[in-house]
Write a structure and sequence with these properties.
Radius of gyration: 45 Å
Distance between the termini: 123 Å
Largest sheet: 6 strands, antiparallel
Strand content: 15-25%
Order of helices and strands: HEEEEHHHHEEHHEEEEEE
Number of strands: 12
Oligomer: single chain
Strand order of the largest sheet: 7-12-8-9-10-11
Number of helices: 7
Length: about 280
């Protein structure tokens, strides 16, 4: 049976790690166990402290704080046309400019050139926020505010314009020129027209765009009282519209009479609407 060697040199204790230290002596006198350097190196027999870790690179000098940027001023994407009134049913590049300008003021509209329900609501919201007459129509005051001017409240009444009387005459005269035209659903010419077609026909003669259907016409303008109504304004019923001719008279494309007629206001209209 093999026996452990228990012999020791007389009078001298031997540490168990001494052989390992001697066996593991590395290059330059450094004592290494495995791959770990034991904290000191021997040069010329004297113990030296391990080299200090290299100093961390100095932090770059802080750059001077940038000068604060000048406050930006949001300008409308496009200057709106100075003469054209825009309302429900309007289309084209001027409506695209309007939609872009409304988006600059917080709206979220598709810039598609179609003045419909969303654009109408955005116009009314803008007018309400800027102290303007809330009618959903982009006239001189709303247009001026969107172009960078300040909104001026009209106190709930529209300011008279020099072209009001001429447009009234043009609208009523055009409507009267259509008297006797046969009623035709969806038509808007002297060959045949329905109630909204007559309104479009008459307003086109005055250079004013209006929506195509009776409900859009009623909702796209500004509601007024009968005492405020002028010839050329619109009388609205549920599902029907007519041109107000003054003195309690209207011109409309009558489904019951199957032609365009001039007659007194009949039944119970829901109100009067102006686009001027």
């Amino acid at each position: 049976m093999a026996q452990n060697n228990t012999h020791r040199l007389p009078g001298r204790a031997q540490l168990p790690t001494r052989h390992a230290q001697r066996a593991a002596r590395g290059v330059g006198g450094a004592a290494v166990l495995g791959t770990v350097v034991l904290g000191s190196a021997f040069v010329g027999g004297s113990a030296q402290a391990a080299p200090a870790a290299p100093a961390a690179p100095a932090a770059p000098a802080a750059s001077a704080p940038a000068a604060p940027a000048a406050p930006s001023v949001t300008a409308p994407s496009a200057v709106l046309d100075s003469t054209q009134k825009l309302r429900w049913g309007s289309r084209g590049g001027a409506v695209q400019d309007l939609q872009a300008a409304l988006n600059d003021h917080g709206a979220n509209l598709a810039v598609d050139g179609v003045f419909g329900k969303r654009t109408h609501a955005a116009v009314k919201s803008y007018q309400s926020s800027n102290g303007l007459l809330v009618d959903g129509v982009v006239g001189p005051q709303t247009r001026g505010a969107l172009n960078g001017g300040s909104g001026v409240s009209t106190g709930g009444a529209s300011a008279p314009t020099s072209s009001s009387s001429s447009s009234s005459s043009a609208i009523v005269n055009a409507a009267r020129s259509a008297l006797g035209t046969p009623y035709s659903w969806g038509g808007s010419s002297l060959g045949g027209m329905d109630c909204s077609g007559l309104v479009n026909y008459a307003y086109k003669a005055a250079g004013i765009d209006v929506p195509r259907t009776s409900s859009q016409i009623a909702n796209g303008g500004r509601w007024i009282s009968q005492s405020e109504a002028q010839p050329g304004d619109i009388v609205a019923w549920s599902g029907h519209v007519a041109i107000y001719a003054g003195n309690g008279q209207i011109i409309d494309a009558s489904g019951s009479k199957q032609r365009v007629v001039e007659r007194g206001i009949w039944g119970n209209p829901i109100g009067f609407v102006t686009y001027r």
